[in-house]
Amino acid sequence: MNSIEIDIRVRYAETDAMGYLHHAQYFVYFEMGRTELLRRSGVSYRELEERGFFYVVARVECKFRLPARYDDQLVLRTTVERFSPVRVDHRYELLRDAALLAEARSTLACVGRDGRVVGLPDDVVARLGA
Question: Between 20 and 30 A from 104 (CA), which of 6, 32, 76, 120?
Fold first, then answer.
C-alpha cells in the first residue's frame, strides 16, 4: 500500500486565537497519516520500536495554501514516494472538499537504539514493499 486517505475534523484546541488551525498542528496530522499508512501496510510503529527500530524525521517541508478552521472536515492523503530499508519519503495533501489547503513532504530515516542509521529487517521490508 503506497497511499491512503484519512478523515480529520479540526478540533477547537488545535486552533489559534483567530480560529485557524495552528501551523504546528499540520505536522501532527502528517504524522497521523504516515502512522496509519504504516499500520495499514501490516506494520505497527510499536512493533518497530519493540524490535529496536525507530523512524526519525530527517527532513520536512510544508507549503500552506489555504487556512483550515475549527470544525472543518478535512481529508489527508499520504503517499509513499520512495522507500528503502533505511529511508522513506512521503508526500501529503490536506484537502477540504476539493480545495488543497497544504502540501508537504518528509523524509524519515530508520535508526537503531543507538541513533545510527540501520536497515529494517527483511520481513518488515517485505511487508512494506508489497
Answer: 120
